């Protein structure tokens, strides 16, 4: 049977299709529907919750505190700002993916670009956090006189350990991202090529 | 225009074109429960895109664009939607010709369509819907020449798959 002969069957099957009753009004009023919207809302909540938690924490801590506390708190602030920036960036990216009123080719190209950008940003963010953590440890030791045993080690040993730690983390994140998203991106690229 | 009027206008548009959206769902999502999820997602994306619709293209072109883009996006996110290789997951009411041999052939053809990728499925569906190459170009963003070549390739592929 040829595809042209299927046209009649296709039309017949469409005519006999049982259409379930759907309440369109309640559907469009439910703002939480749809995986993209749910994910976007999650990022939106993150953008609100993180600064809120920091503000509450700031108001509750005592005014007199030691060096260690100031160091830890400064890093927490840096982390919180970075997290908020991370949520905002993802929120914006997902917003771009929600434009569906464009041709399929354009939409797929947009998805590839957005996903690649998002992944690049995520990698920079997570790897940057490792650097922040290392800086935190060193600052705590130098100014806060914490972690005395580790501080007693020669600087070269510490530096080598940090380099190895960063290299392992770099490699692991690279593999994890490739495993989780690489296949999807290359499949999307393949689909874009099919539309050329 | 009041928000209420807009939503009523939109509801009417969806009702008038519900069959078109359902057909897109039937080509992309299996089993039936997933089709309903996909239908809801498409309606929601249409609603989001509705204020931007100026009537520069045909309503059907606009609807197909949003419906196909939503389907492909959802398929990428929910892997369980792709169960289309299972013969049991074929669309309901595949054919009701009364002729068992013809019915079986149709069944085979549907099974073969299920094995096509997302783009090929879109091309086949638009072809079965008798959409012209010009409209297909607008929907898919593929040149008419490339579409003709693609259509021939798909026909040959389907022949191979139904052998």
Topology readout:
The complex is a heterodimer of chains A (196) and B (163).
Chain A lengths: L2 H13 L8 H6 L5 H26 L6 H31 L6 H41 L3 H4 L3 H40 L2
Chain B lengths: L2 H14 L1 H11 L3 H18 L9 H19 L22 H15 L3 H11 L4 H8 L3 H19 L1
Would you mind describing this structure in some detail?
The complex is a heterodimer of chains A (196) and B (163). By secondary structure, chain A is mainly α. Helices cover 82% and strands 0% of the residues of chain A. Chain A has helices spanning 3-15, 24-29, 35-60, 67-97, 104-144, 148-151, 155-194. In chain A, helix 3 (35-60) runs antiparallel to helix 4 (67-97), helix 4 (67-97) runs antiparallel to helix 5 (104-144) and helix 5 packs antiparallel against helix 7 (155-194). The longest helix of chain A has 41 residues, at 104-144. Chain A starts with a helix and ends with a helix. Chain B is mainly alpha-helical. Chain B is built from 8 helices and no strands. In chain B, helix 2 runs antiparallel to helix 6 (118-128), helix 3 (32-49) packs across helix 4 (59-77) and helix 4 crosses helix 7 (133-140). The longest helix of chain B is centred in the middle third of the chain and has 19 residues, at 59-77. At the A-B interface, helix 1, helix 2, helix 3, helix 5 and helix 7 of A face helix 1, helix 2, helix 3, helix 4 and helix 5 of B.
């Amino acid at each position: 049977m040829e595809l042209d002969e299927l046209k009649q069957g296709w039309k017949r099957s469409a005519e006999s299709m049982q259409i379930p009753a759907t309440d369109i009004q309640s559907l469009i009023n439910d703002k939480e529907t749809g995986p993209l919207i749910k994910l976007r809302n999650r990022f939106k909540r993150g953008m609100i919750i993180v600064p809120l938690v920091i503000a509450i924490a700031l108001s509750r801590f005592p005014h007199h505190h030691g060096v260690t506390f100031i160091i830890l708190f400064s890093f927490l602030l840096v982390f919180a700002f970075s997290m908020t920036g991370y949520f905002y960036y993802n929120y914006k990216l997902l917003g771009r993916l929600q434009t569906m009123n464009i041709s399929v080719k354009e939409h797929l190209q947009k998805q590839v670009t957005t996903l690649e950008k998002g992944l690049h940003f995520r990698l920079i963010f997570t790897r940057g956090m490792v650097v922040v953590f290392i800086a935190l440890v060193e600052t705590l030791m130098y100014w806060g006189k914490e972690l005395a045993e580790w501080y007693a080690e020669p600087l070269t040993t510490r530096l080598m350990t940090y380099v190895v730690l960063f290299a392992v983390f770099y490699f692991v994140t690279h593999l994890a991202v490739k495993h989780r998203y690489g296949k999807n991106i290359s499949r999307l690229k393949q689909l874009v090529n099919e539309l050329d | 225009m009041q928000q209420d009027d807009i939503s009523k206008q939109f509801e009417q548009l969806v009702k008038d074109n519900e069959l078109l959206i359902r057909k897109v769902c039937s080509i992309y999502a299996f089993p039936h429960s997933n089709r309903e999820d996909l239908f809801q997602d498409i309606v929601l994306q249409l609603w989001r895109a509705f204020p931007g619709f100026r009537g520069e293209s045909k309503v059907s072109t606009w609807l197909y664009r949003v419906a196909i883009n939503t389907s492909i996006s959802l398929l990428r996110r929910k892997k369980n939607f792709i169960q289309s290789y299972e013969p049991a997951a074929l669309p309901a009411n595949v054919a009701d010709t009364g002729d068992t041999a013809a019915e079986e052939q149709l069944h085979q053809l549907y099974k073969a369509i299920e094995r096509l990728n997302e783009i090929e499925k879109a091309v086949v569906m638009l072809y079965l819907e008798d959409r012209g190459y010009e409209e297909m170009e607008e929907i898919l963003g593929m040149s008419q020449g490339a579409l003709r070549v693609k259509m021939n390739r798909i026909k040959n592929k389907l022949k191979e798959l139904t052998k």
